[in-house]
Design goal:
two-stranded antiparallel sheet
Length: 169
């Protein structure tokens, strides 16, 4: 179930809007993140069973989703840029080696690359980056949905058991 469509998004963002293909690709991820943030410990997705009925709360949720699509696009672009800049060096035998910047000097424009970093370090960094991305996305959502309620008056960010839902999760 899509909470917003491309026409709504394009009306909000006008000429600055993403392409419809990018929007549709990122919309599912944005709505999934919103559902995760607005589900309690019992896994009830408040927006799917009791989407807000007040005009203010409805508009705020829709705008949050559109802004989150934009935010996810910015994260995607930043990750792509980080991964494409100087990722590998070529060894004398023609094989490739990952580059990790160990120091940068401004005086004579010197950049040093570390050699032989362990796989554990790379994995640890990847996990840390995923965790920080998840935290940033949640904070982004929380700052926009704080104080909003669903159709039953339950705060969207309430993390406990949903008081009105008796069906299957």
């Amino acid at each position: 179930m899509a909470y917003v469509d491309y026409e709504y998004y394009k009306t909000l963002y006008g000429e600055k809007a993403l392409t419809e293909a990018d929007f549709n690709r990122l919309l599912w991820d944005a709505e999934r993140e919103i559902d995760k943030a607005t589900s309690g410990v019992d896994g009830v997705r408040k927006l799917q069973i009791a989407f807000p009925t007040s005009d203010y709360d409805t508009e705020a949720v829709k705008r949050c989703i559109c802004a989150l699509v934009e935010f996810l696009k910015q994260i995607e672009d930043a990750e792509r840029n980080a991964n494409s800049v100087g990722q590998y060096t070529e060894r004398a035998d023609g094989s490739l080696q990952g580059k990790v910047v160990s120091s940068v000097s401004a005086g004579n424009e010197s950049i040093s690359y570390a050699v032989g970093k362990s796989a554990d370090t790379a994995i640890s960094n990847a996990i840390k980056d995923l965790q920080s991305k998840d935290v940033a996305v949640y904070q982004f959502i929380a700052s926009r949905l704080s104080g909003l309620s669903d159709a039953n008056g339950v705060n969207l960010l309430f993390g406990g058991r949903y008081p009105y839902y008796r069906g299957k999760v």
